[in-house]
Amino acid sequence: MSSPIIAIVTGANRGIGHAICQTLAADFKEPLLLYAASRKGEDLGFKPSSTKTQIEYPSLDIASTNSINELAKSIQRDHDGLDVLINNAGAALDDQHSPENVKTTLDINYRGTLKVSESESQDSTTVLTNELFYRCVKLSYHF
Ligand SMILES: NC(=O)c1ccc[n+]([C@@H]2O[C@H](COP(=O)([O-])OP(=O)(O)OC[C@H]3O[C@@H](n4cnc5c(N)ncnc54)[C@H](OP(=O)(O)O)[C@@H]3O)[C@@H](O)[C@H]2O)c1
């Protein structure tokens, strides 16, 4: 079997990230090692439809530099590098306007996502948002 595509989905435990992982587990045709990352690092029970798909459930808090670095180190240690990063995790605090919430939103959604992208990806890594991922699916583009 050829080497699997190594992919991370952040915020995999609910919402759009959960749907992306379900889609990849059910439909992806090539060998795939999917890191379905969540803050708790819990087993989310995705059911791969193929033996070519393997799923791991690491912990990743994109607001924590330590957490980002730990996952990046473990992926660098175990693999040549990451092929696909789907930056999905994010906080929506729009209904509670306050300077503190603006800062928290920027820290997580902008600075956290940037740090994950810088730590996890190399020149050859495809970095997608969840919206871009769905455009790829619509175009039947397999990374
Ligand atoms: N739904 C929309 O219409 C829409 C529109 C524009 C953009 N977006 C963006 O698309 C993404 C997903 O949307 P959604 O509707 O699926 O949102 P959601 O249901 O609120 O899910 C957000 C996901 O992000 C995770 N998350 C939040 N803070 C995190 C952190 N510090 N570290 C790691 N994970 C964290 C959450 O984990 P926990 O369960 O641990 O909190 C959850 O898995 C978000 O980034 C959102 O801002 C969504």
TrEMBL record:
SUPFAM superfamilies linked: NAD(P)-binding Rossmann-fold domains
Parts forming coiled coils: none
GO molecular function: oxidoreductase activity
Chain ranges passing through the membrane: none
Alphabetical keyword list: NADP, Oxidoreductase
The keyword NADP is assigned to this record: yes
Record family assignment: Belongs to the short-chain dehydrogenases/reductases (SDR) family.
Name by which UniProt lists this protein: NAD(P)-binding protein
Species annotation: Heterodermia speciosa
